[in-house]
Amino acid sequence: MAEDDLLRRRGRFELASELLADCPGVVMKAFAGVVVTRCEHNYDRQAFDYTAVSPYFDLVEDGEPAPHYDATYDEVAGTVTWKKAEVAGA
């Protein structure tokens, strides 16, 4: 994959603050292959909001907002998969 393509594979996701404290190994697996470009803690939701680039995300055209992704952890396989979140009303 060309570096230019990777930089256009942008996404947003959220991780609960307690997940970092309770399951740091799972968080490390989620971040494998993900380069965070922005992080903000949302106190009201007790969650970290991330913007990142990753080969797991779809290509995004310049000027378009990064879509939201959900990460799912498979305890048996020990893997994390990323899926673009459903957009309400779409």
Structure description:
This protein has 90 residues and is an alpha+beta fold. The strands form 2 sheets. A 3-stranded antiparallel β-sheet has the order 1-3-2. It is built from 3 helices and 5 strands, in the order αβααββββ.
What order do the SSEs take from the amino end to the carboxyl end, as H and E?
Answer: HEHHEEEE
Estimate the strand proportion: 35-45%
The biggest sheet, with number of strands, parallel, antiparallel or mixed sense and barrel status, is:
3 strands, antiparallel
Structural class: alpha+beta
Based on CA inertia axes, which overall geometry fits? globular
Low-confidence stretches: none
Rg calc: 13 Å
Give the termini separation: 30 Å
Number of helices: 3
Residues in helices, as a percent range:
10-25%
Query: Number of DSSP strands?
Result: 5
Q: In what order do the strands lie side by side in the largest sheet?
A: 1-3-2
**Rounded mean pLDDT score:** 90
Distinctive features:
three-stranded antiparallel sheet, globular, two-stranded antiparallel ribbon, 90 residues, 5 strands
Give a brief rundown of this model:
With 90 residues, the chain is of the alpha+beta class. The protein has helices at 3-7, 17-22, 24-31; strands at 10-16, 35-42, 47-53, 69-74, 79-84.
